[in-house]
Inverse folding.
């Protein structure tokens, strides 16, 4: 896979510190790869709900998990202000 970035229309990002889930609307317009996966979205496989599609579900590395925990603390602090 070539090193090319593309934008994904995301609605929300959720994490529990160990995993990350990005919800949004699957669209072929967001994919600039010729890979077949770009043309297929399987809700059963991704675990989509009735209101939102799961665009990405992944396990965080130990370092990413540490960063997510720090971001949560910062978000909680700002919500309390």
């Amino acid at each position: 896979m070539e090193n090319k970035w593309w934008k994904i229309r995301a609605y929300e990002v959720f994490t529990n510190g160990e995993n990350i889930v990005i919800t949004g609307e699957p669209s072929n317009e967001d994919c600039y790869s010729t890979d077949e996966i770009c043309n297929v979205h399987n809700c059963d496989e991704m675990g989509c709900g009735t209101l939102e599609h799961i665009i990405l579900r992944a396990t965080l590395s130990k370092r990413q998990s540490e960063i997510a925990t720090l971001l949560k603390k910062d978000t909680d602090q700002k919500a309390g202000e």
Notes: The chain has one domain: 10-80.
